[in-house]
Amino acid sequence: MTLPPPREVLAGEKVLRINWLPGSDRLRGLCHCGAEAEGEDPIEMWEWLLAHPDHPAGGPTVTPSPDVLPPPPAHRVSDPSIIRTRTPVLV
Amino acid sequence: MTSIVQNQWYVAAYGREIGRELFSRTICGESILFWRTEAGQVTAMSDRCVHRRFPLSEKPSHLNGDTVVCGYHGFTYGADGVCVAVPGQKRVPRTARLKSYPVVEQDSFVWVFIGDPDEAESTRIPRAPWLDQEGWTVVSGMEPLKARASLLIDNLMDLSHETYLHGGYIGTPEVAETPITTEVDEDAGIVYVSRHMADAECPPFYSTSTGIQGRITRWQDIEYTPPCLYKLHSRIAPVGVLPNEDGTDPDAFHVEVVYAITPETENSTHDFWAVARDFALDDESVSDFLRENNRTVVLQDVTALDVLEQVLTGEPDGYQELSINIDTGGLAARRLIAAMAAEGAGTTVEQPAAATAP
């Protein structure tokens, strides 16, 4: 399946772009200043773009994965009436 | 601190819902009374009498011309929320006025401003012109969601879930398989996510409504203007059929799927949905099909998100999640909303793209 090159739709002067490169798992970030970088993690890529004008050299940080991953966290259940009062974490 | 973004316009109702009957809906935690004046203007004011807090939407409260009369003790308010009569005395206390809300009727929606009313005029109301425009036919509805608005935003910003949650309706394998492009204009407050499928299976939602047999070129272009209005520009055409170079596109079918995501409370949401099409304009059977099918799809989301809300409220703070490429647009939306929330609360976000919870 072939795709046309990514279109640029938004016409503002400070548009940030992330293109998922077809045929791969890679992302390419493009800042309005012309800086570009490739990476594999959308969170890291947004942080790299938002660092404008001080985009870290070498592109987004890649967090090395340990050979042996720790077990996932337990799904503990606590009192909903308390938790409902919390402020949701916006990531 | 509230998670609801202040100083923004939110869709409170469809225009058709507001008439000469008193109508109440909770928007962003505020119980608001709506009614139309005899001249047809929509009014919005607090749904609590200043006297003893009786809801003005409750019978025997009623309209009398362009005033609303409290059914408990008769306090009477004008269309601007100012009390014009109290029982048994001529002097009306100067503080006897209901909180009134800036309100605008546009694109079939009733928009209400939540926050400082002085900010209303300079704050954008995003447009969805197809919902009230010649050349388009619209079906629409609203489903109550027992989940926080951010869960619906996550859902709509990543349409790869169509493949799994909406298979047999709008989901096909190609949706989840096709890479997206994401653009953010922070100044304009827009997140734009494109997924263009060159050669895809045609899901029943589109094969039945358009009559296209065989595979399709399917474009999904999301244009989200946080916090409330979400538009999915959907283009369906036989494989290989593209727009003309001059921008005209006579051989494709266009569907504008519009959502208004309005918090009811911190943990519940009004899920307004509308489907506008530029084909089969007068075909009632197509309208019936799209209305029924889109409502089914919305209810599939509602069922899933209601469960998710229960799960999340039962887990301790800092629950862990994982983001991958399909989440690029959703992450951008979260960041914009966090910045808007901070602005509405008069604070700043130092690291709006902060990493996932610990």
UniProtKB/TrEMBL annotation, chain A:
Q: Cite the residue spans of the region called Disordered.
A: 54-91
Q: Which domain of life is it from?
A: Bacteria
What name goes with this protein? Answer: Uncharacterized protein
Which species does the entry assign this protein to?
A: Geodermatophilus sabuli
UniProtKB/TrEMBL annotation, chain B:
Species: Geodermatophilus sabuli
Task: State the source organism's domain of life.
Answer: Bacteria
A biological process (GO) of this protein is: methylation
Extract one GO molecular function annotation from the record: methyltransferase activity
Q: What is this protein called?
A: Vanillate O-demethylase monooxygenase subunit
UniProt keywords, alphabetically? 2Fe-2S, Iron, Iron-sulfur, Metal-binding, Methyltransferase, Monooxygenase, Oxidoreductase, Transferase
Q: Where is the Rieske domain?
A: 9-112
Has the keyword Transcription regulation been applied to this entry? no
- Pfam families the UniProt entry points to: Rieske, VanA_C
